[in-house]
Amino acid sequence: MSQVETAKKSGFARLKERFEPIVRDFEWNWTKAVLFSLGFSVFILVSTSVLPSFWLYFADQKLHWDGSGPQGFWLKELRDIIAMGGVTTPIIVSLVVAAILQNWRRKLRGHTDSRPSGGYR
Asked: b/e per residue, 85-120, with b = 16+ CB within 10 A?
């Protein structure tokens, strides 16, 4: 690959090339799985419980989005929407990232979809 071709690549393409060997060659063992599970549990606990709870207290006490005033109803609804987004977003993002990484790894390893297609034979 020439220097011109290397210079034309975007930052994302270079980053992708850097992580492809890691994604392709990664294997789980018991230690990695337990440590990842522990870290992921702490992440989910903090991001789905602690942060939305902090947001609700902050919105009530500092921003006064407690339902009082002429726009109080809509501010309270906005506060709750933001809190629910804080609860559901980390779970959805983690599921999507896991699916993307699994499909990327499968493609890097050259696996094909070998499921039966069904129908008449």
From this structure: ebeeebeeeeeeeeeeeeeebeeeeeeeeeeeeeee
pLDDT tens digit string along 3-34?
A: 555 557 788 889 889 999 988 888 889 999 99
- Chain segment 29-43, per-residue pLDDT in tens: 999 999 999 999 999
Q: What would the two tokens of residue 102 be? A: 């699994």
Query: Contact, 113 vs 100, CB < 8 A?
Result: no
Domain assignments of the chain as residue spans, ordered by start: 10-108
Nearest-angstrom CA–CA distance, 15 and 104: 14
Element (H, E) at 49: none
Question: Averaged over 66-92, what is the pLDDT?
Answer: 93
> Quick one: pLDDT at residue 5?
59
Predicted pLDDT at 12:
86
